[in-house]
Specification:
Blueprint: H1 12-32, H2 39-46, H3 50-56, H4 60-79, H5 92-108, H6 111-123, H7 125-148, H8 156-176, H9 181-199
């Protein structure tokens, strides 16, 4: 049997159907896991036929990649306001504190989805590539506002990468070993202080 040609939806109704499939995949992959979900279940949850699913997606893996893109696009939209204007030395501590809060929230707003996609990123190179691209785009978004805010360009990309690693570590530790709010705020303040020293224009 010849494979059905994959369509790129153009009309509003077709775009909406494809989006329904992505949303259904997101829900089922989050609740049941990617490997425990089949395409027929996604079709039922999206209220379309299996044939419609295969007209937009080559296979379940293709659905997964669009689901992860959908998830990461949602995270990007949350971070975008932080980088909308120049970041001055005075504003940097507050912005870094907000970034930590947003990253922590991104891990907890849909914990099942986050855990499933992160686990898949260790097994599926295509999923890992999407997470890597998201992280690199986030780091690039920080560079422009820091430059226009007066920060030195010397090793700026490398400094930002170190700062991001520090922030991620703080978030992951809080998720693995939750600390009381007051104690976490103290740890967060230490991380922000270290990041400010590293990024300071004079450094």
């Amino acid at each position: 049997m010849a494979k059905q040609e994959i369509r790129q939806p153009q009309q509003k109704r077709a775009v909406q159907k494809k989006h329904q499939i992505i949303l259904a995949g997101y829900q089922l992959f989050s609740e049941k896991g990617y490997h425990s979900t089949n395409t027929a279940e996604i079709a039922r949850a999206a209220h379309v036929s299996t044939g419609i699913v295969y007209s937009y997606f080559k296979d379940k893996k293709a659905i997964l990649l669009d689901v992860v893109r959908f998830y990461l696009d949602g995270l990007s939209a949350q971070f975008a306001p932080l980088f909308a204007s120049p970041i001055t030395p005075q504003a940097l501590p507050g912005l870094l504190s907000q970034l930590i809060d947003l990253l922590l929230a991104s891990h907890t707003m849909a914990p099942k989805a986050h855990d499933e996609f992160l686990a898949l990123s260790l097994l599926e190179p295509d999923v890992r590539a999407l997470f890597d691209a998201f992280e690199q785009a986030l780091l690039r978004q920080l560079q422009g506002p820091l430059r226009t805010g007066g920060f030195s360009e010397h090793l700026l990309a490398e400094k930002i990468e170190i700062v991001y690693g520090l922030i991620e570590q703080v978030c992951h530790e809080q998720l693995r070993h939750p600390r009381p709010p007051k104690e976490f705020e103290a740890i967060k303040a230490l991380a922000v202080q270290a990041a400010v020293v590293l990024l300071h224009p004079a450094v």
